[in-house]
Amino acid sequence: MDIYLGIDVGSVSTNVALLDKNDKVVDTLYIRTQGRPIEAVQKGLRKINERNPGISIQGVGTTGSGRHLAGIVVGADAIKNEITAHAIAAMHIEPKVQTIIEIGGQDSKMIIIRNGVVTDFAMNTVCAAGTGSFLDQQAARLNIPIEEFGNRAIESTAPVRVAGRCAVFAESDMIHKQQTGHQISDILSGLCQALVRNYLSNVGKGKDIKGPIIFQGGVAANKGMKKAFEEALNCEVAIPEYYNVMGAIGAALLAKETLNIEDKTAFRGFDIVDYTYSPRSFECSGCPNLCEVIELKMNEQVMSRWGDRCGKWTSSLNDNCKLMP
Fold this sequence. Notes:
alpha/beta; Nucleotidyltransferase, domain 5; 5-stranded mixed β-sheet; 10 helices; globular
């Protein structure tokens, strides 16, 4: 089976998606990055290969905060940012989508689309109070599994107002509400509403939010968040089937779009799951820029360097120079 592979390496999760030549999702995988992006990619590819023996990879795309590193490790044909990947995936699911809400573990973003073109976007840059980690922390504080958070939140009949501008203030305010006798479901619903207010006032500030609206990212699994967004925006918010791996789906679609029919993929093959990778960084003192250069070795051989503005270290790989920092 001819397959296009998409990999989304984020701070919290690494997601993998397989699409066939008709852009149909064949398989998906959601695993924790745990601060080891290369190992997470290797683990993901190993599982995908075991579950889908005999597949032929025709193209590979990477996205997410670890897209460059993952792209070098696997041999990606397309390395694209998260905005592009999520937009492409959303438009594939709903061609008429005009607003994309994406909330992950450590970041959140809003993408505005008009007539199939991204016209505006924004990402959180200040605080984690508008992300999934915020809900994880509060659920742990209340001793509630995060999987039950949404169902408990939608049981609320009288949500309490929780300060959600800052994660620290939100936690102290939540504790105060709990000690004054409010129901857990009302507090959970209040937390969802607080996150939505924070998101709309920061990430969504000044944005022309119109339907259809698609909600994707890991937080989309929380029914309380979906309800809170619909109440705040006064319109339906749709959640796609593969809400938690939309970035990976977009990366696979972009890889297919990048490659022409006669092009051959740069994919290194599934054997890379057994290779040894050693990344390191150093500061180049050759000029006042003091660039932080990243170097990646595969099986003790330097395979890539990046981060230098002048190309001194990048070009040394091609020139077979023995430059040492």
